Amino acid sequence: MTAMKSLILGIASLCFLLGSVKAADEPVSLERTLVRAAPDVLKYCKEKGYKNVGVLKFMAIKDGKLSDNLGTLNRSVARRLEMGMILANDVKAPIGIIEDASEVAAKIPGANHLTKEGRPKLFEAKYPLAWGTDKVEPDAFITGNIGISEDLKTIDITLIAFDRAKATLVPIGVALTALNDSRKLSEIGESFTRGAFDEGKIETKKQEQQIVAKAAQVKTQDAKNPANDPTSPVTLEIRYDGKLIPIEVREGKAFIQEAQEGQKVTFLLKRNTEKGTLACVLKVNGENTLFRQKLPDQNCRKWLLFPEEKTGIEVIGFQKNDTTTEQLKVLSRADSKAREIDYGNDVGTITLSVFGEQKGTPPAGDLTEETEKTKAVERAQLPEKKSNNFEALTAKMLEEGNRGPGGLIAQGASVGKTINVVKFTADPTPLMSLTIVYYKK
């Protein structure tokens, strides 16, 4: 039995109850679930006497397979929990929360929280705190497993802790169950086109569930993959050295041959409808082609396709700033891995999410403290400018979470090189999501 399989079986037999999050609670969004769990995680850490804690990339279980690279969700769930713990922290005596512990862990030879030998190595480095300039030695790490239901409707989360003293995996609480939604589908590598639901805003839980059900139909081949669906609002063309590369659809998934070393990779975004302005988030290996953002798609800067756009937008690389582009390098995962978990962001996918324009005034919501924190956790990333202290950081996180993604990006005069910022508010629910896995023949 592998270390990963042993980990799952061990967790199932050792779970105990979290204080405020009960297994019988009606499922809510992933972000709200983590916001509710965060105080109890911090309580556990305080009772253990931990001063500095990091959150590591989660493992994911989907269709009976365990993976450290299901998509971007493995790492983004860790980041969301990290954000939730910061916002739930004690203002008077905060526990030190490490910023993106996986980023440091990825550079430690032999580090692996799945093995008895690999866990102590994670404590050999110093890690940056989420605020200030200090680097600290961690006392413990939080990680866990994500389970995606076969029908894609729910996401199960099991939290695990281990510390410097024993480095033994200890489950924290029962498995939490969150509702999946259309905005998470690209993070778990699922595709869909809204089709009959592409008119108007998504305002009810039932409508949101219909979109998730549509993705499940694509998965089971009861609906077309957006890569070969003529009703998709946007077509993505991929070229290597100027040659159009066909996208293959097999068992509901889209695949494309991997580019060879030195080949020039370009993309063309073409609209298939004359209705409205379309906003596109195009990512390679989980990084946005605009400024290499690793935010959830709804919070990313977007390429805009206006109704009068006839030729499409050519994306020739990662846009570094308003005038400079860095050529794309599509790299495969190593044919063999020395470790059972890779803490990096080596996703192996090209993803496209398409959003329409938000119509009217969005609903005000319940305006509770929990809602404020949930919006900040949805970003799954700290503010770009680092705060000097804990209080300033939490205030900035809440401010950015409520402000939303801000101005969006449009094609400029020189295609793919010079860009212009345009005022545009995207509907948060995508019209389509497409995940393409690239591979070697």
Structural class: alpha+beta
Shape assignment: globular
Helix fraction? 10-25%
Largest sheet: 10 strands, mixed
The averaged pLDDT comes out at 84
Q: Which parts are unreliable, with pLDDT below 50 for 5 consecutive residues or more? A: 8-23, 411-416
Number of strands: 25
Quote the beta fraction: 25-35%
What distance separates the N and C termini?
A: 30 Å
The helix tally amounts to: 7
Oligomerization category of the chains in this entry: single chain
Rg computed from alpha carbons, rounded to a whole number of angstroms: 21 Å
- Overall tally of domains: 2
Verbal overview:
It contains seven helices and 25 strands. By secondary structure, it is of the alpha+beta class. The radius of gyration is 21 Å and the shape is globular. It has two domains: 3-180, ABC-type transport auxiliary lipoprotein component (Rossmann fold, 3-Layer(aba) Sandwich); 185-364 and 398-439, no CATH class. A hairpin with a 5-residue loop joins strand 20 and strand 21 (325-327).
What would the keywords be for this entry?
single chain; 441 residues; Rossmann fold; 2 domains; 7-stranded mixed sheet; 25 strands
